[in-house]
Amino acid sequence: MLDATARLAVDPADPGVMQVILERAIDMFDKADAGFIAVREGADEVLRTVACSEQYLPHVMDLRWPPGEGGPGLVYQARRPLLWSAPEQVEAAIETVNPGDRAAIRSVASLLPPAQSVICAPLTARGEVIGAIQLDHRGQTAPFTEWELGVLAQMASNAMAMALDNSILFTELRAQRSQTQELLRRIIAAQEDERVRVARELHDVIAQTMTALLGGLRVLRRAAEGAPELEHLDEYLSQVDREVRAAMEATSDLASALRPAILDDLGLARAIEWQAQRAVRSTGVAVELDFSSDWLDRLPGQAAIMVFRIVQEALSNVVRHSGARQVRVEAGDGDRGRYLRITDDGVGLPAGGSLEAPDAVGLRGMRERAEVAGGELAIRAGADGGAEVLLTMAGPGLTGNEGTAAQRAGEKRTGPSLVIGRSGFSGEVGVNPW
Q1: Phi, psi of 293 (to 5 degrees)
Q2: Is the separation of the CB atoms in 362 and 317 below 8 Å?
Q3: Residue 8, pLDDT score
């Protein structure tokens, strides 16, 4: 069983583990010529064959064994190991199987020497029967004995069952995680769709209504010109004009925050530059951007949106909580794949800070978006103080070299570093030396 344990250590959900366990069990019993393992699936009490000897393929593989049918079903129903020590007893056990599966079993048996005896033991873990292992004796030697049944039962209830249970649990956990990620992807996609809709409404309805209002105010101000008795009205209309323009600017900012058009028009890298400039506006924080790779602009649509939201939240946290004077955003290719790193020189993470803390909603949202994008997110103390947000994107997932709309039109992105100071972009400062 050591090689099965070693495979479990590498991949707890390795489907080949059960085949290894079966083969080792057969090797341990001189009389065993073949066998199979059946396990319970979820809450269903029906067992399904998940590993079998080569001579039983393909008929026995994937057979179902309801309680009371065949060796596994009878053992599962009895909750104890069973021995069939003579051919007629083996035949009686086969007769308990439903007609369809019984025909499959007999088609296999017709090609092999008749079974002389069979031992079958329950696989028990955490006090529950999770499956059964059956070994068949088809030779002319003496049949299986109660002693051999006891040995198999002992193996089945200890290391064998533990290995199978771990494999089943990890397989179920992996499936649940996959389902959770798919649900999360759909939720976030719905959120982004709603952001787009609201941003469009703000632009098409609210902004246009305010533009019409400004036009009406201009008409009223022209009517009030040259009329001393309406001088106070002109001053009032001027104030309203300023407030409407401020509201229009705020509406435009809100629409851009919900879904910046630059993300669709010029790509993720330019959108990050725009967001950095917007985030530090009037804050006194200097931002350095350093993109030595073009992978940002080759991410597929939803992944690009997720990465943009991560940067948006990270820069917002720097401005609101860190007290930093400088923040650096860099993207490139490293040993572990593509990376995006955001570092600052602020106060760092709070003592005992955790993504599971009640007030860490934004940080958890960043991690969830990283998973949806197919990456991993680490939030930790920076090497020289402050905090570091590191997104790694390993493996495939880029869309190729088609680029953004602007790049398709002929614009070539060279990837220089940019510095955003207290009054906006201050120009190129060179290419990333990494």
Answers
A1: -140, 155
A2: yes
A3: 40
Give me the CATH topology for the region 264-428. Answer: Heat Shock Protein 90 (3.30.565)
CA of residue 22 relative to chain centroid, distance: 33
Q: Tokens for 375?
A: 């990456």
CB 40 within 8 A of CB 72: no
What is the gyration radius of the CA atoms in the chain, in angstroms?
34
Asked if residue 85 lies in contact with residue 117, where contact means CB atoms within 8 angstroms, the answer is yes
In this structure, the number of other CB atoms found within 10 A of the CB of residue 190 comes to 10
* Average of per-residue pLDDT values in the chain: 78
Report how far Cα 422 is from the mean position of its chain's Cα atoms.
Answer: 38
2-157: CATH topology is Beta-Lactamase (3.30.450)
Nearest to 118 by CA among 70, 49, 154, 46: 70
pLDDT tens column, 214-245 = 888 888 877 777 677 776 777 788 888 888 88
Whose structure tokens read 């982004």? 192
Residue 410: phi and psi, rounded to 5, are 120, -5
Q: pLDDT tens digits for 13-62?
A: 455 778 888 898 999 999 999 999 998 876 778 999 989 999 998 888 87
In order, the DSSP letters of 34-83 are EEEEEEE-TT---EEEEEE-GGGTTTSTT-EE-TTSHHHHHHHHHTS-EE
**What's the confidence (pLDDT) of residue 164?**
66
How many whole angstroms separate alpha carbon 114 and alpha carbon 42?
34
Say what angle helices 146-157 and 159-201 make with each other, to 10 degrees: 30
335: Cα separation from own chain's centroid: 22
pLDDT per position as a tens digit, 250-307: 877 777 777 777 887 888 999 899 888 888 877 888 889 999 888 988 888 888 888 9
3-class DSSP assignment, residue 370: helix
The structure's pTM equals 0.51
Which pairing describes strands 326-334 and 337-344: parallel, antiparallel, or unpaired?
A: antiparallel
387/348 Cα distance (integer angstroms): 5
